[in-house]
Each structure stands twice: as C-alpha cells, then as structure tokens.
Design a protein that fits this description.
It is built from three helices and 14 strands. The chain has 223 residues and is an alpha+beta fold. It has two domains: 77 residues, Dna Ligase, domain 1 (2-Layer Sandwich), CATH 3.30.1490; 84 residues, Beta Barrel (OB fold (Dihydrolipoamide Acetyltransferase, E2P)). It starts with 9 loop residues before the first helix and ends with a strand.
C-alpha cells in the first residue's frame, strides 16, 4: 500500500506555487543572460538547411548580421555577439530554438554592405547550429524542480520549462501525498522527488516572447 493521501491546504499551496513560478522566471532570465550577450546589433535568419532530423538537429543557417561602425575594429567578434544574442530564443525561420553554433563563415569575401543612409553594416554569414525542435508526442526527459497537488514542474536540457498536470499524473498511475507534498506511483510506491528525472511525452508546445514551454503527459520515473 502507498502512503495515505492527505488534505492539501489550497491557500498555502497557492502561495507556494506563486513563489515557485517567481523562482522559475528568475532562473529562466538568469540562464538566458548567462548564455547570450546583449547588443544593439541583430541577426536576421534568411535560410536554413537541415542536415539531421531529430529533436536536436544540426542545421546549416544562412544569416544576415548587422553591426554598427564601432564594431568594425573586430568584425568577427561583433558578428559573434550578433549570433549569441539570438541563442535560446525560438524562431519560426529555423522552426526551433538555437542551442549552440560553430563553423561561422563570412560570405561575399568578408565584405559588408550599407543600405541607404542607415548606419549598420550588413554581413552575410553561414554557420552550423544545434536546434531544439520539439514536436507533439516526442519523448523528452525532464528534471523535476517543484511538486504541487496541481502539477509537477521540470526543466528539459536544463533550460526549457515543462510541466505535467495532476490529471495526466493520475492517468499514469500516480497519486499525491499531501503530507509529504510529493507524487508517488501507486503500484511501485516510488516517489517523484525534487531532482528526480521523468520521461514523458510532449503533449503541447507553447511559445511566448521567444520562450518555449511544454505540457507533458504519460510520465514515467527514470530509474
């Protein structure tokens, strides 16, 4: 027999959930800040050619990077800042989120161009990029960060937020123990603890302001 279910305090858990959501937002901002450089320069995606199809795939991207005249003293570094500013943001042009890149090549013999009287100098670039493109029903692996009676929160690849609702957890044979504030498997009595890993199916993928979040289903504890 598994542990007995308790009666959760909705007000207390509501406060806990709000605190957890604030922590998740702060962590997401910190991860983005650590992984990208702020700049007035920008990158436009013109073309992408996929070389390996999967949730994580390597794509050859053709970019247009625009730098200010102050960046001409070190064009390669300025272009690198442009690409880094695009990291970890969802883009329709690549149908996913760029996780990393390499083999940056400046086209047109390294020459840039000026459009009309605007100050930016535009460079055509080609590079290999690692792109995360989740699709519905894909199997993912997430590390548990919070556990509530309403859902379990996770991070995928230590960056993307994911969650599994209480209804989906119960469908998979889990029940909530209010005394221990955790979910457990009714048959095995294994508990979903903080930092546990769940393998789950991506049910819905949401995108807002360049950030991806995932609703999961059919979870299983990784042993």
């Amino acid at each position: 027999m598994g542990p007995k279910r308790g009666t959760p305090s909705s007000k207390a858990e509501s406060k806990d959930e709000k605190r957890a959501q604030k922590r998740q937002k702060k962590e997401s901002k910190k991860r983005r800040k650590d992984s990208s450089a702020s700049s007035t320069e920008h990158v436009n995606l013109n073309e992408s050619t996929e070389t390996r199809s999967n949730l994580l795939s390597v794509k050859k991207l053709r970019l247009s990077a625009s730098i200010l005249p102050s960046g001409l003293s070190d064009v390669k570094t300025s272009i690198d800042r442009c690409i880094r500013d695009f990291l970890l943001k969802y883009s329709d042009a690549v149908d996913g989120t760029i996780m990393g890149y390499k083999n940056v090549e400046i086209l047109a013999d390294g020459r840039g161009r000026i459009v009309e009287e605007l100050p930016h100098i535009h460079y055509d670039i080609r590079c290999d990029a690692l792109v995360f493109s989740p699709v519905p029903n894909a199997r993912l692996r997430g590390r548990v960060t919070e556990s509530f009676h309403s859902h379990v929160s996770m991070v995928v690849f230590n960056y993307f937020n994911a969650s599994i609702s209480a209804s989906r957890l119960r469908e998979a044979g889990f029940e909530y123990d209010a005394d221990k504030e955790s979910w457990y498997n009714i048959e095995s009595e294994d508990t979903i603890e903080k930092s546990s890993y769940l393998v789950f199916a991506a049910e819905k993928i949401h995108e807002a302001v360049g950030m991806i979040s995932i609703d999961g289903s059919n979870p299983a504890l990784e042993k």
